[in-house]
Structures are given as structure tokens and as C-alpha cells.
Amino acid sequence: MLNFAIAACVILFAVAGYIAFMNSRLIAEQKKEAYIPPPISEYTVYMTPHFSEDDKRALVPIGVMEYRDADAIMKIYLCRVLNESEDLKLEDAGRVFLQHLTAARDSERLMFYRTVEEALQGPDEKALTDRLTVASKKKARPE
How far is residue 55's CA from residue 29's CA, in Å, rounded to a whole number? Predict the structure, then answer.
């Protein structure tokens, strides 16, 4: 009788383990099917002394730098483009923005750089803006 009880427990545990395994696979498949990646966005680097209301309708800034120009104070925005366009991919726009950032930093004209945290979508934008923040805080390279 004891052997029968032990065998029943082993079979019961094996069936419970199999059900748990199948359940976890089902949940993983449902999560995969439910994941909708953010749409591939286009980006641009926008230079202006003032960001207007019209600009806000077409662009979402994710990074902003301000620097002193010979004539005035200028701002450069790294923006996600809201409408259909043929602008840059994130890494390309980030590279252009970084060139402006390092040039202003190295010539000691950079006033500030900041990330617009509430506008970030996804880990790629976060990683890029983190790199830009680090670059903005580096010491100016001697010319």
C-alpha cells in the first residue's frame, strides 16, 4: 500500500510539473504575440534660436543643447519626426548631433545639454541620450 501511495505521488508531481511547463510556454508565446515594437521613427537635428508651436506639431525633441554663436544664443534639438518623412535614422542623427555638441564643447561655447526624459521612447533613444550626456560633460579637448 505504501508503494502504491509513493507511485501515485510521483505520477501526480510529474503531471503537475508537465502542466506548469506547458503553462509557462503558453504564457511566453502570448507575451511574444502581444509585444508591439515601437514604430521605426525618423529623426532630425534641428537648429534654431526658438522652437515654435509649428515645430512642436512636427517634431518631438529628445535632446537639446544650447551654445553661444557669434550673433546670438542658438539651440540644437535632436528630434523625432512625427510626420512621414525621409530623415535620418536614430544613430545617424545622433552622430550629427554629437559632432555639433563636441565642436561647441571643445570651443567652450557649449552652455548646456539636457535630455528630454519624458519624450524618450525605447532603450535605443535612452542609450543615445546617455552617450550624449556623457560627451557633454567631458573636458574640452585642446586644439
Answer: 41
Which among 20, 17, 76 is positioned nearest to 46, based on CA atoms? 76
What is the three-class DSSP state of 27?
Answer: helix
What is the distance between the alpha carbons of residues 63 and 87, in angstroms, rounded to a whole number? 17
Helix (H, G, I), strand (E, B) or coil at 89: coil
Contact 106, 143 (CB under 8 A): yes
Contact 110, 104 (CB under 8 A): yes
Spatial distance between the Cα atoms of 80 and 82, rounded to a whole number of angstroms? 6
Packing angle of the helix pair 90-106, 122-137 (nearest 10 deg): 10
The pTM of the full predicted model, rounded to 2 decimals, is 0.68
**Cβ(74)–Cβ(67) under 8 Å?**
yes
Are 41 and 80 in contact by the 8 Å Cβ rule? The answer is yes
Q: What are phi and psi of 53, to 5 degrees?
A: -65, -35
Short-list 11, 77, 12, CA closest to 43: 77
- Reported as a single tens digit per residue, the pLDDT across 54-104 is 888 889 999 999 999 888 889 999 999 887 777 788 899 999 999 999 999
